[in-house]
Design a protein that fits this description.
Blueprint: E1 3-8, H1 11-23, E2 28-33, H2 37-46, E3 57-61, E4 73-76, H3 77-91, E5 96-99, H4 106-117, E6 123-124, H5 136-142, E7 148-152, H6 154-161, H7 164-170, E8 175-178, H8 185-193, E9 198-204, E10 209-213, E11 216-217, E12 222-226, E13 231-235, E14 242-243, E15 257-267, E16 270-276, E17 281-283, E18 286-288, H9 290-297, E19 303-313, E20 317-326, H10 334-344, E21 353-356, E22 362-363, E23 367-368, H11 370-381
Parallel strand pairs: 1-2, 5-6, 5-7, 7-8, 8-9, 20-21
Antiparallel strand pairs: 3-4, 4-14, 9-10, 10-11, 12-13, 13-15, 15-16, 17-18, 19-20, 22-23
């Protein structure tokens, strides 16, 4: 069996192939964007489309990892079915899904597969020119099932909350998955106050998407923390076979387990993700996780969005820097940010540099691209 390319643009264009995937009558598919020939060709070359693949593989999903080189998680039909079944069990029953993100990423593919597994054709928002929250109400009205679900990233949720009609429409969904990146506490609180039935998800391409919902693993999913760094290791029925063309990758060294690059805590079986170990900042001999600092800074008045990243420092080795998208008209200073961090964490974690930007660069659905951000501010300010 060879790995075959599956160009996806609309739900309708992919339904026959995805239905065959669930039936077990399809080849192994590599989803690629139908309208981006360059990206499709890059993925096809990097993941060896058209060449033999493990017979158990049903879907190869390109990762949006920090290296920029897609590895390609090989997911089985059983992985995808377990993910869909676990999601519907956690949300209260099968339902129809609205696709509101790029369809070739794992989150987009899973939205379509969950809907098909529940016996419903998924609905779709056209996000090729950006996410328009005003279209949510009409999309919800087009859906026909008793239970209706949607999956969004935090930046989309922020846009929804800025539009009253969109907020009311989102609150009519029976479940709203929020994943792809950490959701700031103020955004989460605003969503819950508006009656939105949001569920924070944690997972990745290697686990067929989200496998931990609001800190609780889906049925059959196992979570453990390894070593003094408290690295998250995931196991269970949603874990991929491994990486395409990287059979010896250490992340899959333990059969049936995936060793993430994330750190976390476990309290009474509830997982909290504290940050990415491969993005940790080593400053003055201490280690700072950007996501921990961002969680504090996101609550500072005047901060709409924030990203924390490392910069070289002759004395400290690295220093903590922050890029902020300010609320229009707000004044945000480095002194204000430092005071907030020092009050909740430690002065070592406080940013020593502040950059005000119009938007934050992202990779994949919702994830901040810290490398691109560091290069961006260096080019602007050098």
């Amino acid at each position: 069996m060879n790995l075959e390319i599956l160009p996806i643009d609309t739900v309708e264009s992919a339904l026959p192939q995805l239905s065959a995937l669930l039936d077990g009558t399809a080849p192994a598919w590599l989803p690629v964007p139908a309208r981006d020939a360059r990206e499709a060709a890059r993925l096809a070359e990097a993941l060896a489309a058209g060449t033999p693949i493990d017979e158990r593989a049903a879907l190869v999903v390109a990762t949006s990892g920090t290296t920029g080189t897609p590895k390609g998680a090989m997911l089985t039909r059983a992985n995808l079915q377990a993910s869909a079944a676990g999601t519907h069990e956690r949300l209260g029953g099968p339902g129809q899904w609205l696709l509101a993100m790029p369809p070739h990423h794992v989150a987009g593919v899973q939205v379509m597969l969950r809907s098909l597994a529940a016996g419903h054709a998924p609905a779709q928002l056209d996000v090729r020119s950006g996410f328009d929250p005003a279209a949510l109400a009409a999309a919800h009205a087009r859906m026909t099932a008793d239970r209706r679900y949607v999956s969004l990233v935090p930046t989309q949720l922020v846009k929804v909350l800025a539009d009253r009609a969109a907020t009311e429409a989102l609150a009519r969904f029976d479940g709203v998955l929020i994943g792809g990146a950490a959701c700031p506490v103020p955004v989460r609180e605003a969503a819950l106050a508006a009656g939105i039935r949001m569920v924070r998800t944690y997972g990745m391409s290697e686990t067929a998407g989200g496998c931990v919902y609001d800190g609780a693993p889906l049925p059959g999913v196992e979570v453990r923390l390894d070593g003094p760094e408290q690295r998250i290791v995931l196991g269970g029925p949603t874990v991929a076979l491994g990486y395409r063309n990287l059979p010896e990758h250490p992340a899959f060294a333990e059969p049936g387990r995936f060793r993430t690059d994330d750190a976390g805590t476990l309290t009474d079986g509830v997982l909290a993700v504290t940050g990415r170990l491969d993005e940790a900042i080593s400053t003055g001999g201490l280690t700072v996780l950007p996501q921990v600092v961002e969680a504090v800074l996101a609550q500072v008045q005047g901060v709409a969005e924030v990203a924390v990243f490392a910069q070289p420092d002759a004395r400290l080795g690295q220093r903590v820097a922050a890029a902020v998208v300010p609320v229009p008209g707000a004044e945000v200073t480095v002194e204000l940010l430092r005071a907030a961090v020092e009050a909740e964490l430690d002065r070592t974690a406080a940013p020593r540099a502040l950059y005000l930007v119009d938007e934050l660069p992202r990779r994949g659905p919702g994830k901040i691209d810290r490398r691109a951000l560091a290069a961006q501010v260096t080019n602007i300010h050098d």
